[in-house]
Amino acid sequence: MNETAFTTKPLSPDLWPDFETVMGPQGAGYGCWCTHFRLMPAQRKLLGGAEKKQHMRARVLSGPPPGLIGYRDGQPIGWVQVGPRSDVPNWNSSRTVSRPVDEADAADPGVWAISCFFVVSSGRGAGLSHALLAAAVDFARQNGASRIEACPIDRTKQSKSVGLYVGPTRIFRAAGFEEVALRKEGRPLMRLALL
To answer: Which DSSP category does 4 fall into?
Structure first.
């Protein structure tokens, strides 16, 4: 990948059409529209794709940016959801492998989460996840995060699997993240100190 051709921008309301382009007509990941960690399971089950899309649009309109859009040669190609843990309540649920080590971290504005990635199919396998992760870490640091956490997956059946929406463990290790908990085999909770 030509690094100079890849850029990211925080998802602001004016960039909503680029988010739609990345998510595609179905909303990526089975019509999720990146609401999986924003909505509790019972609430999410009641919503169809259009309602999930509207929920995410309302979140973008209310600000601040909930993540970054990645561009290759000026075209929207990827997405990484990054922000304070409190912005993704289901990520903090006691039933999830991503729950905080210290419950207070769920409300601490300095503890951020990288919870989702999505790269359009034509861009997968080209190292864009590494570039999105680096940009997400920089964004968190610039916005006052003291540490950032992720709960990636060790492996999937296919290298281009949609199951990689949490990111592959190897890219987090390469970026200096360290495991702080393991509640399920293959799904470590990882952390990077930013101060």
So the answer is: G
Number of domains in the chain: 1
136: Cβ contacts below 8 Å, ≥ 6 apart: 67, 68, 80, 82, 114, 148
Is residue 59 one of the residues assigned to a domain? no
Whole-model pTM over 0.85: yes
- Measured distance CA(118)–CA(120) in Å, rounded: 7
Enclosing domain of residue 73: 3-12+65-193
Pairing of strands 111-119, 75-84: antiparallel
Report phi then psi at 137, rounded to 5.
-65, -45
Are residues 82 and 67 in contact, defined by beta-carbon separation less than 8 angstroms? yes
148 near 114, Cβ under 8 Å? yes
Q: Is residue 31 part of a domain?
A: no
- Phi and psi for 34 in degrees, rounded to 5? 60, 40
pLDDT tens track for 72-105: 999 999 999 999 999 999 999 999 999 999 999 9
Q: Which of 89, 88, 97, 85 is nearest to 154 (CA)?
A: 97
33 within a domain of the structure (yes/no)? no
Radius of gyration of the chain (CA): 15
E strand segments, the chain: 6-10, 67-72, 75-84, 111-119, 147-150, 178-182, 188-193
Other CB atoms within 10 A of residue 36 CB:
20
